[in-house]
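User: Working on a comparison across species. This one is DUF952 domain-containing protein from Parvibaculum sedimenti. Can you predict its structure so I can line it up against the others?
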Amino acid sequence: MSARAIYKIVHQAEWRAAEASGRFAGSPVDLKDGFIHFSTAAQAPETAAKHFAGASDLLLVAVDAAALDLKWEVSRGGALFPHLYGDLPLSAVRSVDPLPLCASGEHRFPPMD
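Assistant: Here's the predicted structure for DUF952 domain-containing protein from Parvibaculum sedimenti:
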């Protein structure tokens, strides 16, 4: 499985702390599970709806998938999701964009690969 870019949805405070420290070890759920959860462009909206419903302080971090040693593992609905066992090097980050809520309550995503 491959993708040009993969995506991490994070709370702004978590990402700002990562930028300040120069490393991202993961969000609390990532640390609990032992790997950093990512989504493909097609998976990200469902991830936002399922795990971040109503959250208005989110960022969408786009990451160069080729720069990481990913494991594609079966998760929600039997789909393969990209997982990173280890810290995310900030050098692999392509962009960081706000992920605002629309009036409908869904998140408005920027263009994704």
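For your comparison, note: The first strand starts at residue 5 and ends at 11.

User: Helpful, thanks.
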